[in-house]
Write a structure and sequence with these properties.
Number of strands: 16
Shape: globular
Strand content: 25-35%
Structural class: alpha/beta
Bound molecules: NADP nicotinamide-adenine-dinucleotide phosphate
């Protein structure tokens, strides 16, 4: 029988959903890993918009809740039945269960991947959830007519964490990515990172501009994580039989709609995706991570960390993310 530990960790927890002020840094006990689990000491923790949904209650989770879906660090202990990790391994993960906002945690090893030596902890913590998302969006969410080099796609919020990775990866795949973002400076950042065109959706009618850029044809795929504010116009950007990928709700959830709308917009296809359907097995997770590691190690995709916060500044980190003040990725440093 494993002995109880006397280990503790600082952890960011909420008792009830609410604003940034509901997050408190507390001391928690950390045990030994059980079957299929590892204990990880974090060197960096990733910040994601899903953390905001979980904190605010948009995504309903049991309370109290330790937040955080992404991190990187060193394996300190390995539970029975974990074959792919050893004590001392440098690792990074996007976890399906929250809890990464801490110094030390025990978690399922399923989505934990060994980090290549050339990739830093900060980069690992910043890129796993966002990079694996860009991976499945660009490589697995294909329109029925396929996606070929030269094809146009539209990517909203393209100067954000997922967005800047997608801009670079799309360029590497030969796609012509039309970016949208909320300021001219963010549009320039998307262009600097591989977008073929950029539209400030706060000052321009993005659907009209997309039609003009594509000579009236529309794009093959729209990747929409903004939700409520962009949903309807996004449908007008698609070519017939195109694919609408809704994968987030930064402005609020997509409202209910009648399926006949999809016919009216050109017999388009619609999917609502989550990374967590893609990383349910070790093999699939590792294959996606290997693809991400390769594109980062090749230099084709650079992980831009534009904000760093000490763990005890987590409230400010959430305020900045929700106020659209951030670009690229943000990390919390234990
Ligand atoms: N389903 C999945 O598998 C999955 C996985 C990862 C992420 N996501 C989603 O992808 C999106 C990007 O995630 P991220 O962590 O990289 O965040 P992020 O893009 O760095 O930040 C969100 C961005 O959304 C834009 N936005 C538009 N309307 C907004 C509003 N009303 N309030 C706040 N932001 C607004 C802002 O950019 P502008 O100022 O340029 O508009 C903001 O910077 C999020 O919606 C997230 O939930 C989904």
């Amino acid at each position: 029988m494993t002995q109880p530990t006397s280990l503790t960790s600082r952890a960011v927890r909420i008792e009830q959903p609410g604003g940034p002020e509901c997050m408190q840094l507390v001391e928690v006990a950390v045990g030994n890993p059980g079957p299929g689990e590892v204990r990880i000491r974090h060197h960096a923790v990733g910040l994601n918009f899903i953390d905001v949904y979980q904190r605010s209650g948009l995504y309903s989770l049991p309370m109290p809740l330790q937040l955080g879906m992404e991190g990187a660090g060193v394996v300190e202990a390995v539970g029975p039945g974990v074959g792919h990790l050893q004590v001392g391994d440098r690792v990074a993960y996007a976890g399906s269960a929250p809890g990464s906002y801490c110094d030390l945690r025990v978690m399922s090893a399923l989505t934990v991947c060994r980090l290549p030596d050339a990739i830093s902890f900060e980069t690992g913590a910043a890129m796993m959830l966002k990079g694996l998302t860009a991976q499945y969006l660009l490589k697995k969410c294909k329109p029925v007519e396929g996606l070929e080099p030269g094809d146009f796609v539209l990517f909203h919020a393209a100067a954000g964490g997922v967005g800047l990775i997608a801009c670079q990866w799309a360029r590497a795949l030969g796609l012509r990515l039309i970016a949208t973002a909320g300021t001219d400076a963010k549009c320039q950042l998307a262009l600097d990172n591989g977008a073929a065109h950029a539209i400030n959706y706060n000052t321009e009618d993005f659907a009209a501009r997309v039609k003009a850029l594509t000579q009236g044809q529309g794009v093959k795929v729209v990747y929409d994580s903004v939700g409520k504010d962009t949903w309807e116009k996004s449908l007008d950007c698609l070519a017939p039989f195109g694919l609408m990928v809704t994968f987030g709700n930064a402005s609020g959830p997509v409202p209910p709609f009648a399926p006949a709308l999809l016919a009216a917009k050109g017999s388009i296809y619609l999917t609502r995706q989550t990374l967590f359907s893609h990383i349910t097995t070790r093999e699939r997770t590792q294959a996606m991570a290997d693809d991400l590691f390769a594109v980062v190690e090749s230099g084709a995709v650079k992980i831009r960390i534009d904000q760093r916060y000490p763990l005890d500044q987590v409230q400010q980190a959430h305020r900045d993310l929700e106020a659209r003040k951030t670009t690229g990725c943000s990390v919390l440093l234990p």
